């Protein structure tokens, strides 16, 4: 009977294996419900298109943003709103370009802007950042076509320059919980096999004697 009992090292190995199995399953379940499923739903309602810049302009209105200058230091600054209007290969109507899905989900007035600069304490620095972005779209991109993305579940009349949930992120979201689960299974199986071989070797040794 003593031969079938696990040693302290084998017991720790089994616990580690079961812990990794549980962690992999819980991670896959949590990421699937809270992140992967919404990401796939967003991607399911969208697609890619070719975009061409029609106009780049700054609105006269300035919007407020909140900057942080320390643990207990916060303030409000302002930035000009930059709009990039494009024509897509799927529609002849002008569409407003956004950096990613984050801007299309905003519920405040900032959704009108194609670019929101990192909020600096100085309004002039915010204006310079926006002006630099405006020159980029006018001079470097110009009339050159580029790939953009749309999503019918968000704002069907707007397009995005990039997706937050791309294939690489989705792959890692699914890959690492599965790898954790498989490593846990491998540890448990190898521990059981090693114990079984040790018991058989002990039995053969007793028969010889």
Automatic annotation (TrEMBL):
Cell location = Membrane
Q: Name one GO biological process term.
A: detection of calcium ion
What Gene Ontology terms describe where this protein resides (cellular component)?
Answer: voltage-gated potassium channel complex
Q: Which UniProt keywords apply?
A: Glycoprotein, Ion channel, Ion transport, Membrane, Transmembrane, Transmembrane helix, Transport
Whether Transferase counts among this entry's keywords is: no
Quick check: keyword Nucleus in the entry? no
Pfam name, any one: CaKB
Write out the transmembrane intervals: 16-36, 169-192
Q: How does it sit in the membrane?
A: Multi-pass membrane protein
Supply one GO molecular-function term: calcium-activated potassium channel activity
Q: Which domain of life is it from?
A: Eukaryota
Name used for this protein in its record = KCMB4 protein
Recorded source organism is: Illadopsis cleaveri
């Amino acid at each position: 009977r003593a031969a079938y009992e696990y040693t302290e090292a084998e017991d720790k190995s089994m616990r580690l294996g079961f812990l990794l199995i549980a962690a992999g399953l819980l991670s896959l379940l949590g990421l699937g419900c809270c992140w992967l499923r919404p990401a796939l739903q967003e991607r399911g309602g969208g697609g890619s298109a070719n975009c061409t810049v029609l106009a780049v302009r700054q609105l006269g209105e300035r919007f407020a943003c909140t900057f942080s200058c320390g643990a207990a230091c916060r303030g409000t600054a302002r930035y000009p709103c930059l709009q990039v209007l494009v024509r897509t290969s799927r529609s002849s109507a002008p569409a407003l370009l956004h950096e990613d899905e984050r801007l299309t989900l905003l519920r405040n007035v900032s959704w009108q802007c194609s670019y929101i600069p990192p909020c600096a304490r100085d309004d002039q620095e915010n204006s310079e950042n926006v002006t630099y972005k405006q020159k980029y779209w006018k001079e470097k991109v110009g009339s050159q076509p580029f790939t953009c993305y749309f999503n019918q579940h968000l704002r069907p009349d707007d397009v995005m320059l990039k997706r937050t949930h791309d294939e690489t992120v989705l792959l890692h979201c699914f890959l690492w919980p599965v790898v954790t689960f498989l490593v846990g299974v491998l540890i448990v199986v190898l521990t059981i096999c090693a114990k079984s071989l040790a018991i058989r070797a002990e039995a053969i040794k007793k028969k010889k004697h």
